[in-house]
Model the fold of this input.
Amino acid sequence: MTRLRHTWSDPYRTEYATERACWACGLVRVTRHEPGVRPWVEFRRGGRGGVRADDGSGRTPPCEGEAPQAAGEVVTP
Ligand SMILES: [Zn+2]
Done:
């Protein structure tokens, strides 16, 4: 079973954060960089609150979206 990687969009930068969204699964990766503290990364999915990546695993959640190859047959008018 292959683990899908996220396909991140171009970063959207604000003053204290940089956000990227995965095209496939909609996960949002937020890199927070506020003055005086070390940057950290949060992940958001489906309207839930921020989930800190350093909750013990420090890992990016796996991509739950369809791979582009698997969705290649979809025809969009
Ligand atoms: Zn993804």
User: Anything to note?
Assistant: The chain is about 0% helix and 25% strand.
